[in-house]
Each structure stands twice: as C-alpha cells, then as structure tokens.
Write a structure and sequence with these properties.
The chain is mainly beta. The protein is about 0% helix and about 45% strand. The strands form two sheets. Strands 2, 4, 5, 6, 9, 10 and 11 form a seven-stranded mixed β-sheet that branches.
C-alpha cells in the first residue's frame, strides 16, 4: 500500500523559511515524478513544483512562477523522500501543501494538473504571517 506522509509545516513570519518533507512508503519512487501542490482556503489546488528523473545525475525540476528563486525541491532516493525548501516566504504562500506522485511518465501537458498524479499525502499546513 502506497503512503505519502508530509511534515514540516507550521507558522512562520514573512521572510522566513520552512522545509517540508514527503516520505513515501509502499514502493520505490526513485524515478517517478513527484510534485508539490498547495491549496489556499477557498481556492483550487495549485501546482508548485515537480521533480522528475531524466537519466542524468541531477533530477529535472520545474517550478511555478510564483515560487521560482524562493523554493527548492530535492529528492533523497535512499530514503524515498522528497523535500521542499521554502525561503523568503510571503503571506500568499499560506495554504495546505500536498505531496503527490505519478505512477507513469507524464506528458508536458499533464505535469501541472493534479489529476495526473495517482498518490497524494494528507497535506501539511503552512501559515505565513505578515
């Protein structure tokens, strides 16, 4: 049974940092596309970032414009864990952050769509105060 467990959320002041973790169990996701989405109250779930193995030593990652330069995704294959380092946080970054994994190769048009991902964590709350 596949399980994704997020942790690391919390309350932080604007300009601060947090590091989210997503620990996967049940199977290896060392070459899978893993992503972070977020959902603010009353809004849809938005794509934040994804990491994909492309056969090279360093995974490929792409970020939503609103987090570029502030957030960094990384993967620890040995521990089947993905991290999201968030810096220079803004109040608008507030929301529930979800980890997701795709069980197949995704086309470029599918990467940013939540329904393309097959497994989801329960989410971790991030609150950034002004």
């Amino acid at each position: 049974q596949v399980q994704l467990v997020e942790s690391g959320g919390g309350l932080v002041q604007a300009g601060g940092s947090l590091r989210l973790s997503c620990a996967a169990s049940g199977r290896s996701f060392s070459t899978a596309t893993m992503a972070w989405f977020r959902q603010a109250p009353g809004t849809e779930r938005d794509f934040v970032v994804r990491i994909t193995w492309n056969g090279l030593p360093t995974d490929y990652a792409d970020y939503a414009d609103f987090v570029k330069g502030r957030f960094t995704i990384s993967r620890d294959r040995a521990n089947n864990t993905v991290y999201l380092q968030m810096s220079s946080l803004k109040p608008e970054d507030t929301g529930v952050y979800y980890c997701a994994v795709a069980s197949r190769w995704l086309r470029a048009t599918e990467i940013h769509t939540g329904r393309s991902y097959d497994y989801w964590g329960q989410g971790t709350q991030v609150t950034v105060s002004s």
